[in-house]
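thought: fold this chain, then report.
action: predict
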Amino acid sequence: MISLDEAVTARLETHGERFEVLVDPDAALEMKRGEFEGELEDVIAARDVFENASRGDRPAEEDLEEVFGTTDPLEIIPEVIERGEIQITAEQREEMQEQKRRKLVNTITRNAINPQMDDAPHPPERIESALEEAGFTVDPMTPAEQQVDEALEALRPVIPIRFEEVTVAVQLPADYAGSGQARVREFAELEREEWQADGSWVGVLTFPAGMQNDFYGLVNEVSEGEGETQIVKEKDELDTR
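observation:
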């Protein structure tokens, strides 16, 4: 279950009665879109249905039976969410909007590059300030992923930006190959790998271009600065970073 501070109220008014449940806002939106795949008890603040959640008042069992055909809260709660309206306070709306904004900035930062600066990643601060300059308003009720395209359209007149993937070859010396390659391969999609005769490991990975700095930092960490990286511009042609 979640805390009351994290929950919003979903309210259904029908048959002259009001039914309210307390639920995580993102999970509630997923349920309304038919996309929720988690466990209900993990995203509700109370295993109960209320007539007025703020006062803790509960509807009569005969009303539940008449409207929903059951008195089981776990059967009723999804129906209240799907058929009802999500009630959020101004404070909750502001917090949800901030969470979506952070996630949106992070998504863009991890995927975008600056085509005018040798395809270097944009720092998060630049994305944030550009969104503000563009006057882009984050919708707190829409998943951040669904706002990326609209945000990019707003950003393009302000900063040079595009989404792109990069393929990078990395070589770890024998002294670091054993444990290092295990961490490197977890970073992104491994295109191919090869163990060299001297015990070193070579891997080729593809990932969003905005994550280059994170990747190079990881390689330096696992190899104590001894690893080498090369950007693969074409399948069999390497350009040293």
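thought: worth noting. Confidence is low (pLDDT under 50) at residues 236-241.
final: tokens above.
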